[in-house]
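>> received
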Amino acid sequence: MQIFYETVELLGCLLSYLFTLYTSYIFFNYKSTLYKRISLLLSVVYTPLAYDLIIPFSNTIVSLLAMFFVYIVICICFNGNFLIKAFIVLVYNIFSVCISNLYFSLFSVIFHVSINELIAGRNALRSCLILSLYLFEIILLFAISKIIKRNATAHYNVLELSITFLFLLIDFVFAIFSFLILFYYPNSVSIVKIVCCSISILCVICALISIYLIKKLNEHYLHNIDNIAIKIQLDNMVEYIKNTQNSNSEIRALRHDMKNKLLAYNSLLQNDNIDDVICDIKETLSLPSLNEPLSYCTNTPFNILIFNKAQIAKGYGIPFNCKAIISPQYTNLKLMVALSNLIDNAIEHELTEPKEYRNIKLSLIQDINSINIILENYISNSILTRNPTLSTTKFDTIQHGFGINNIRTLINSINGIVEFYEENSSFFVQIII
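>> returned
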């Protein structure tokens, strides 16, 4: 049994290291996937370093050595300021100590025993209590990470988070149940102690696996976003090629008509019918000119996107005005997905407005430090008053666009902000990156 208890102590050291990395990940980003793997592999160095039976020093010195080692790992593997990293390591350790003291004090009060009786020596009771403590810390850290990163790249809905927290809570209840069995039946046979400790260990492992799986679901979602972005870009390119081919056909037809007209002019001039030629020229000049641009900006992907949306809008009789200044080298698929969906939303709304008031304006300006996008469309009645959260009313959001919440997620994932406001019978969407 002693080997089993020492294994639990080693597992506790390992979890403490992983929790510190997870805390750092809440506030910083890994430099690369390689550094992430290195930080995980270095756990084989930290675990024996923090294990009090291997390092022949007092607990205080062992804790300080472990903190310094974790700080070095975080400095090497994460981006960010060194002083802030030191502050994060210090705050986490204070947090961990405080939570541990509160946790043990709570159990001491509930069961009317001293803290020393709960955690003295290596035994099954201590093992279950420590494992339940780590489960409690997992729940707290997961909750903190979701609160702090609620506007970051992660995409979770309330149901997903509720299920995850429920799963973690059930794990915690099982771990506490194992502790209660050992507390009220301290003279249980060894097999009971092993089973109870094993249940606690499995609860911790299941909790870590559940967090890992929901992280993978988020990565899968973001991967789907990238696939959708590429699909939209390909669809836009196909439409652009079709429009270009139609334009080329029209140009060839125009050249043919011009040739015939010039031949007619030549014949009339040879017969001294100058007045007829002048009259026909004046009639041609009186025709309304076509002001539709073929190019909105020098950035090919964004030009294709804007051109196609302008064609769709004008096909519905909606005036579409655009001013775009953006570097030819700039690429951002997620921004294109968001902009494409926002323009689709604007076109869809304008179809509900009277024809004489329909209008869409797009401004896309890039300067040295940022990109500022303003999309404006006419509204006869306030949208924000009727639907402040701009929640979608469509059942199939895949076939009918992302919806505003997903657009916010996309913009937040590229470190941008998006705002919606109304002014003078116009609805505005502003994106700043």
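>> DSSP finds 14 helices and five strands in the chain.
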